[in-house]
Records
---
Amino acid sequence: MTPRPLVVAVDGPGSSGKSTVGALAAERLGFRFCDTGLFYRAAAWLALHRHVPLDDGPALAALVPLLELESDRRGRYVRVRADGREVTALVHRPSIDRVVSEVARQPELRAALLSRQRVLARDGSIVVAGRDIGTVVLPDADVKIYLDASLAERARRRRLERGIRDDERDGTEARLVLDDLRKRDAIDSGREMAPLRIARDAIVIRTDGFELSEAVDAVVRAVLERTREPAPEAGTP
Ligand code: DC
């Protein structure tokens, strides 16, 4: 059954699986998918490329018109261009991981990206992944999911993604991954504007010990269950 055109917000910390799980859940639901982290990553990449100071909010906001998310044939916004250049692979490098939270905490940049994200979700039937989607960008989203996992589990996933082994030889690199995630958690949760928070009406799904397919199942189930709930009657608190 395909539900009515809905907006599903999927928030959570770095490497909690928002993009992978969100995209697969969207596919199962017949929805589009948008990874809003790409905007922040591409802004960070372009700032480095143009030697814009990473704490210069107004200068970062001025880069926003140069950023473009591109959807594939299945309606997934998982590719990004910066100043016309396809930079998707470049923005997933560790050099961007290390600076993106600093860029993302600048209020002027966040404000400039608000309408860009809202426009993408306007027609519904979309899963939107990020940090502040259910709390700030799309507070009226029909379903809000907060995907979580322990720091150790998220670091393990990131190491796998990056092909880093957790052994003697790669020990330092593995520790860097963990330290980097911990730092990003602190900045993303501690910033003044739109910090990472669990929305009041979010469904929290913890994915420690889950296979990917189990996490996808949990999200799809949560969306279908939420949308089957009868709408509250007018006047009901
Ligand atoms: O999800 P990600 O790791 O690709 O996100 C990259 C950075 O962008 C992350 O440090 C937090 C920030 N971000 C944000 O502040 N708000 C969003 N909606 C999405 C990402």
---
Amino acid sequence: MKSTIYDYIVIGSGIAGLSAALRLSKFGKTVMISKNSLKSGSTHYAQGGIAVALDKSDAPSLHYQDTLEAGAGLCDSEVVKVLVEEGLERVKELIDIGAEFDKKGSQFDFGQEGAHHRRRILHAKDETGKEIERALGTRLLKEPNITFLQNTMVVNLCIKNEKAVGCVVLKGSKYERLSAKATIIATGGCGQVFSHSTNPSGTTGDGIALAYDAGCLIQDMEFIQFHPTTLYTGDKKPISIFLISEAVRGEGAVLRNIKGNRFMKNYHDLRELAPRDIVSRAIVKECIKSGSNHVYLDLTQISGDLSVKFPNIYRRCLIAKIDLTKDFVPVSPAAHFLMGGIKVNEWGKSSIEGLYSTGESACLGIHGANRLASNSLLDGLVFGYRCGDYVRKNENDLNENWDVGMVFNGVNSEKLAEFQVLKYQIKEMMWKCGGIVRNQQLMQEGLDFLKSKEDCLNTEYSHIIYYELKNIFCVSKLILDFGLKRRESRGGHFREDFPETDNLNWKIHQSTGKKMTPFLN
Ligand code: FAD
Ligand code: SIN
């Protein structure tokens, strides 16, 4: 097996991976790895913007308050403080390296989104993630110390003497061994474990499954955020469902049931701008009442030219023969964001020495049980930087004296088709059993289904489809296990058999880990 030594390994090229790699590449040989290209993570698709208290009339303390309120009692207040305070400096640096956000005259044109009590969202039209990724990526790829491996999947984390020493990647038909002093997982979330998701196709929870297999502690996996408004496409189920940004509701778009009546006033004082979990469940209730699979989003009353304000959404809807200026847009909720993940501290340090995580794959309690809109890009920016900073100041010794017994095992088309079917079945099952409304019976049914399929993955095949399926399997099990144990409803975890929030018994985080997998010396 080919073997390469770096100082630092960063797995993932979204905002968190880019921020960490940018910090680290100033100090040592850094490799950033992406399963596909620079553009393959959720970051590329982020629409609404990045929340930051930059406006003169705003303050980090107000942003902090809104974050805590949305988080439904489970935010770690210390890390939220770091997020909103250090966010100011990181966003200014982002602007300094060339990220361009929309302005009105000489002032930033702050947008509004759900559960923010004031306008504080910096955006680049409705394609903010692309702009941030462009700015960070352009800057990073100029660094002499950086190597960017694309179309390369990390399939194994290597732990020796209880320390992370590197990873194994699959590149085409070959395994390669990468050693480093520190390994940072920035592989994003796991939206693709559900049949309905806004996340791009590779968002299969890889980093979380790899870390779990390596013996790392995993936290808060029951908390999945379902975005209320994605373009409803009827029977056609695209892999990744197009998002209609919350920013349009911030500009005055309203929700209507299929009879054309507004309904959010019956569910929350903030109406269309209530926290996402509340809006998503309100939509589910309206759908059940009317026997429909969707509601409508009405943008017709937004002032100004929609094709200029939201060019990406405007274009995509036109392709679906929907004219935003005249037509209501059929929408329904879809899995969007994972609040849980690899348990880390405020520097991204996991429970395994030398192994770190940042961005959506990490869980440090910033988002509690429900993330505030546009706080995820800020999370990746702030904590990616902090993780990079900590790693270079607290390095392990390099250990290149390890190996793993990985033998290439090709897979035929029949087996691949079998894996595709199983992947489809798990995603459908997760939508039904671990979706917006859960209960004991459904989650148990989901776990029983997974148990019945366990043997299908016993043989390891050297193919991305096999590894993604294995990861989806692992993460689905974690979500259902965590969900079954939490006997209450809170934020992104709603149980119809325990519909109330139980602060007395459940204002706590859950975490789990398993024994280290043995590696050959
Ligand atoms: P990602 O950007 O998802 O990047 C993950 C990276 O890991 C990718 O490069 C991928 O190729 C790589 N990877 C994964 N597995 C492997 C593996 N096994 N081996 C090698 N590489 C691997 N948040 C906001 O704050 N504001 C918004 O406006 C906003 N809009 C959104 C719109 C959409 C449609 C979506 C899907 C999300 C949105 N979010 C938004 C959420 C936010 O975009 C994500 O939470 C954030 O971008 C995650 O960044 P990340 O760096 O952690 O991961
Ligand atoms: C959106 O634009 O609605 C998504 C914003 C987010 O996920 O924070």
